[in-house]
Amino acid sequence: MRDTGVETNPSALPDTYRERPRRKRRGPALFFAILWLVLIAGGVYGAKWYSDRIQQQVSSDLERQTAGQIALMQQDFDARITKMETDYQVQLAQMESKIQALNELLTFAKDNADTKTDNSNKLYTQLAEVKKQLSELKKSLDVLK
Where is composition skewed (Polar residues) in this entry (predicted)? Predict the structure, then answer.
């Protein structure tokens, strides 16, 4: 080996030959990578939380609206049933009164019915006799004039 007797000073050498101390560049890069991961995870968690909250609000609103509509339909149904019941009772009362009147007429006709003579025939013959007497009276009046 050669010994020239010249000491080399590392600061006197050009930059290409000088050994540089290695710096740890991992620290800031690792920090930014962790920061980005935390931000992404926070965004995902926030989006999930927000979507769950909106879903709960929508489902509670839908449930409330459905309950209101069901209550309105139940009231309408109850009103219609009540109206039908009252109409049915009125019609039933009318039918009962008609049936009672018919029963009274049948009872009256049964009591007045004579097996030997017919009432309508009696009335017709009596009416014919009255007409005959009326025509005789007219003739008598004409004679008197």
Answer: 1-11
Measured in whole angstroms, how far is the alpha carbon of residue 109 from the centre of its chain?
57
Distance separating alpha carbons of residues 128 and 123, to the nearest angstrom: 9
pTM above 0.70, yes or no: no
State both tokens at 65.
Answer: 């609206």
Contacts of 10 (CB under 8 A, 6+ apart): 18, 19
CB 10 within 8 A of CB 18: yes
C-alpha span between 97 and 99 (Å, rounded): 5
Contacts of 119 (CB under 8 A, 6+ apart): 112, 113
List the structure tokens of 145.
């004039």
Angle CA 22–25–28, to nearest 5: 155
Residue 16 has pLDDT above 90, yes or no: no
Burial 26-35 (b: 16+ CB within 10 A, else e): eeeeeeeeee
DSSP percent split of the chain into helix, strand, coil, nearest 5: 80, 0, 20
Contacts of 59 (CB under 8 A, 6+ apart): none
